[in-house]
Amino acid sequence: MAWLQATIDTDSVVAEQLADALMDAGALSAAIEDALAGTELEQPIFGEPGEPVDKLWSQSRIIALFDEAADVALIIAAASTQCGIALPHYAEERVEEQDWVRLTQAQFEPIRISERLWITPTWHESPDPAAVNLQLDPGLAFGTGSHPTTRLCLQWLDANIKGGESVLDYGCGSGILAIAALKLGAASAVGIDIDPQAVRASQDNATQNQVVARFYLPDATPQAQYDVVLANILANPLRLLGELLSGHVKAGGKIVLSGILQEQAEELSAIYATWFDMEPPVFDEGWTRLTGTRHATV
Question: Which residues bind S-adenosyl-L-methionine (predicted)?
C-alpha cells in the first residue's frame, strides 16, 4: 500500500484553519511544522502543559497525507476555497509502504549522558556494558534523555548521587530521573505526575530496569521529606510549587529544577532563594538547570 503526501507552505494566519479544512476535505492527516526547521532561522515555540500555544511559526508548513487514489489537487483546492484563500504552492509525492517500526526505531540511538551513564533503547545493544545503562524506549510520557532539560538533570544526578539518598522526582514523566537515581546508588525514589499514563509508564520503565520505585498521582503524594527533590517541568508550575517542593526537602537537602528557559533563570532562582541557597545556573541549548541547598531554618 502507498500514500500520497502534499507539502504546503503557508503562514501562521491560516495554517491551522487550512489544516482543519484539509481534514474536512478528505486528508488522512495534516501536521503543521516550522518551514524553516533545521536552518538558522528556525523559530522555537514554547507553551506550558495543558495551555494552548498562542502562536505558530511565521512561515509554516503543512504535511498532509492522502489515500493513494485521492485527487490531491482537488482536495487542496476545496480546502483553500473553504478558507477563503488563493490556492497555495504545494509539492506532491508518493510515499511507499515501509517497515515503519524499524524506521522509527532507527531514529533513536543510545544517548551518552556522561562517562558512565547511557540511555539505551531496548532494541539496541548497550555501547558500554560496564556503564550504568538505563533501558528506555520513546513513549507517551516525556523523558528519554534526548531533551536538554532531562540531560541537565541526569548529569547532576551522575555527579552528585553518592549512595543511600532518598529522591523525589516531581513531574516524573517516564520515570527516567527516579530510575537513574536508583541505578546510580540512591536508596529510594518516589515519582509524582499529574498524568495517569505517565505513572503507569514510569512503573513499567522501573520494572524494565529492575529497580523498585514508587509512582503516584499528586493527591497520593507521600507526606515525607527527601535528600534530593527534582522537578523537571516548566517555569509556570515551578513558580507556583515553590512552597510545596521546599516542604519535601530535608534541611541541608538539594533541589534540582529544570524545564526553565535561560531568560527565566534569574526570576526562578530569586523565588526559590526563599527556601534555598541557590547556586549559579547551568545552561544547555537555551534551557536552564537550577540547584540549591535547603536552609536549616526559614
Answer: 150, 171, 193, 232
The DSSP bridge pattern shows strands 282-284 and 276-278 to be: unpaired
Give the CATH number, domain containing residue 146: 3.40.50.150
Q: Binding site residues for S-adenosyl-L-methionine, as ranges?
A: 150, 171, 193, 232
* Structural domain total, the chain: 2
User: 283 with 152: CB under 8 angstroms?
Assistant: no
The set of cell numbers assigned to 50 is 495543558
Q: Show the domain range for 66.
A: 3-97
Q: Is the pTM of this model over 0.85?
A: no
Annotated binding-site positions: 150, 171, 193, 232
Residue where a domain terminates, one of 37, 72, 97? 97
Asked whether residue 267 falls in the same domain as residue 159, the answer is yes
* H or E stretch at 30: strand 29-34
To the nearest 10 degrees (0 to 180), the angle between helices 15-25 and 72-83 is: 130
